[in-house]
Each structure stands twice: as structure tokens, then as C-alpha cells.
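C-alpha cells incoming
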């Protein structure tokens, strides 16, 4: 039999070489193990089924000003559902970082491989400070999370600190899972370059669009749109290397990612930058919001956001001095607008998105909850 004869045939050095060459050729045409950069449309459409963000959260926030219609939630140290233009319309599953070493020997997932600390950054404003520390003690991510008080943009003011070495010893990737317009199985992602800026754009067929951008540049060519579970960055980084740099992923469960460029800060111990996620009813509207936020002083945006909440919270009945932090936090979560109490359904939804440590009351029978991941 042919197979038996083959097995009995002595394996020469030249034969080993041929087999290795064949193996390399097979690997080279397999997208799952591609070693070179790629372009064009991602493979693996439509990707794995989309899931919602966890329904139980450690933080929730929105601007007091009616000029911003972005609502955010988070758990496990990362942003989960970001809701826009109303608090019952999720547009994301999550937005987090992946961290690796420059030698590409390890890669961490922020929500899994760090310990989390979550506190209000101001006692009378829904601005959250999340500190994620590497379980192995190599780096720390500190994030202040709030929204642009005048635009439909989520802001994360991020400080990455090298606890060992300098930031140039690390690779930091942003990893984003859109679920645009309350549906995650029909999105389209693409790379966008405009006005000297580099972005990742995700849209639904109805025109609603998110634009992800940062004050720190995306490394040239190192951004990608892919399909969850097949051509996404999370899967790509299983081998510690970002090899897939697809320009688009059309019609499926899209995820997007990019490598951030330290630039001249590589020799520093710590770098602070702004990561924005903007929304609009068209790509141009979303990019306009992203550009507007990135073009503004983040300190000034933060100050306005905090001041507007402070003004509202300081007008609350202090209950004769009995009002504690939980009272103020719950009150802020229950009201999305200064001087404009929200309807009961909105209040219940926001309350449900808080953890039991902060939440106001249990669900009533029959009330709908978002499914977990
Ligand atoms: Ca969608
Ligand atoms: Ca890879
Ligand atoms: Ca998705």
C-alpha cells in the first residue's frame, strides 16, 4: 500500500526540507496564521454571534448637559455598553486594551489580566477613575471616564505607566467591539484617514456610526477591522503579534483594534493620552464629534463636565445632613439632565446597570434585563 511504503521510506534531510517548505507554503496561505500584514476585506464574515455587555456594572455615567447624549457603563475595569442617542440603545459590547511586551513574548487582556479599582473621581459628578494594575506587576492603566459635555463623545483620559522599564518596552492596543444601533450582527467596520487623523469607523445600515480615535496616533498601518472570533485583533494576538491589518469588515459582528504609537514618549515611564468614541447619524457627523473632542483641551472638557454635575448635585435636598455618598451617586444616576428628572423607565434602566453596591432596588418580575455575555 502506498501509505505503508511511504512510512517505511527513510526520511532524508532533503525530504525534511521539502516537507518544511510545504508546511511553510500551507501556513503562508492560511489566514489564521498569516505572518505578513494584510489589507482589503477581512476574512471570516459574519463572525461569531454578537453578545451584549454584562447587565451588572460597577460604574455608569452620562453628562448632566443635554448637549451630550452618550451614556456609558462598565465592569471588570473596562467600558461595557455605551448607549446613544438614548439610554436604551447600546452601541458597544466593550472597549478595552490589550497590552504586550515589545519583544512579543506575552499579551494581556485588560479586563482579565489586571486587578481593578473603581472610584468616583469627584464625589458630585459621574466621572469615574478606574485603575487597572497588571497582576504580574509590569504596568498600570489609569483611566478617567466621562463624556464630552457638548458632543456625543465618550472620553477616556488614559495614563499608561511602565512599572518596569519604560513605555517603549510595551505594546498597547485598543480593542473595540461595536454593536451599533442595538444590533451587533450587521455592522460594517473600516479604517478611516482624514484631515491627518487616523480612525476606526463602525456603522449600521441605518447610518448610525461610531468613530474611535486617540490623541496618541495609531501606529502607521497598525489598525484593523475584523470579524469576531475569526479575523479580530483578540484572535490575531494569540500568537503575540498583530499581523492582520484589514481595511474593512462588511456586514457582520465587527470588532476593531489598533496599536498605539508612543512616538517621542517611548523613553518615558508614563504617558497620558485621550481615547474617544464618538457617535453620529452619519460617518461625517461621528467624525465631526471625534475631531471636535480631540481638538479640545481635555482638561477643560473635564472641568465643564464636573462643574455641570456639581451645580446640579449641590441643588439637591441634603436631607438635613443625612444625605450620604450613596444618595448622591444614586441621584445622579437617576437623572440624566440637570433640572430635568428622567422618566421612570430610564431611571430603572440606569439603576439596573449599577452594581448592587450602588443600585437602588431589585428588578420587579417581568422587567427585561439585558442578557449577559
Ligand atoms: Ca448594528
Ligand atoms: Ca497574529
Ligand atoms: Ca461587534
Amino acid at each position: 500500500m502506498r501509505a505503508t511504503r511511504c512510512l517505511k521510506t527513510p526520511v532524508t534531510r532533503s525530504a525534511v526540507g521539502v516537507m518544511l517548505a510545504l508546511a511553510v507554503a500551507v501556513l503562508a496561505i492560511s489566514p489564521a496564521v498569516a505572518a505578513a500584514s494584510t489589507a482589503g476585506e477581512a476574512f471570516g464574515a459574519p463572525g461569531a454571534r454578537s453578545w451584549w455587555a454584562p447587565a451588572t456594572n460597577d460604574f455608569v455615567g452620562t453628562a448632566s448637559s443635554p448637549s451630550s447624549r452618550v451614556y456609558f457603563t462598565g465592569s471588570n475595569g473596562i467600558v461595557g455598553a455605551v448607549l446613544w442617542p438614548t439610554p436604551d440603545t447600546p452601541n458597544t459590547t466593550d472597549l478595552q486594551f490589550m497590552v504586550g511586551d515589545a519583544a512579543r513574548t506575552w499579551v494581556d487582556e485588560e479586563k482579565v489580566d489586571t486587578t481593578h479599582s473603581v472610584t468616583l473621581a469627584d464625589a458630585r459628578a459621574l466621572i469615574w477613575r478606574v485603575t487597572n494594575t497588571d497582576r504580574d506587576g509590569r504596568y498600570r492603566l489609569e483611566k478617567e471616564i466621562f463624556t464630552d459635555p457638548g458632543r456625543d463623545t465618550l472620553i477616556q483620559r488614559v495614563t499608561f505607566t511602565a512599572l518596569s522599564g519604560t513605555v517603549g518596552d510595551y505594546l498597547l492596543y485598543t480593542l473595540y467591539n461595536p454593536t451599533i444601533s442595538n444590533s451587533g450582527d450587521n455592522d460594517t467596520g473600516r479604517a478611516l484617514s482624514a484631515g491627518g487623523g487616523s480612525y476606526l469607523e463602525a456603522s449600521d445600515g441605518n447610518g448610525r456610526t461610531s468613530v474611535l480615535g486617540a490623541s496618541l496616533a495609531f501606529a502607521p498601518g497598525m489598525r484593523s477591522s475584523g470579524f469576531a472570533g475569526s479575523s479580530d485583533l483578540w484572535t490575531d494576538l494569540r500568537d503575540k503579534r498583530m499581523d492582520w491589518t484589514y481595511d474593512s469588515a462588511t456586514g457582520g459582528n465587527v470588532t476593531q483594534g489598533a496599536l498605539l504609537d508612543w512616538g517621542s514618549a517611548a523613553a518615558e515611564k508614563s504617558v497620558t493620552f485621550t481615547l474617544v468614541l464618538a457617535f453620529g447619524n452619519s460617518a461625517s457627523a461621528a467624525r465631526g464629534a471625534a475631531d471636535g473632542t480631540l481638538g479640545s483641551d481635555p482638561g477643560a472638557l473635564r472641568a465643564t463636565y464636573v462643574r455641570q454635575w456639581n451645580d446640579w448635585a449641590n441643588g439637591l435636598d441634603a436631607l438635613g445632613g443625612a444625605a450620604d455618598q450613596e444618595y448622591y451617586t444614586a441621584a445622579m444616576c437617576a437623572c440624566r439632565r440637570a433640572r430635568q428628572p428622567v422618566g421612570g423607565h430610564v431611571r430603572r434602566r440606569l439603576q439596573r446597570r449599577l452594581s448592587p453596591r450602588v443600585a437602588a432596588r431589585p428588578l420587579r418580575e417581568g422587567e427585561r434585563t439585558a442578557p449577559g455575555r
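note: The chain has a mean pLDDT of 84.
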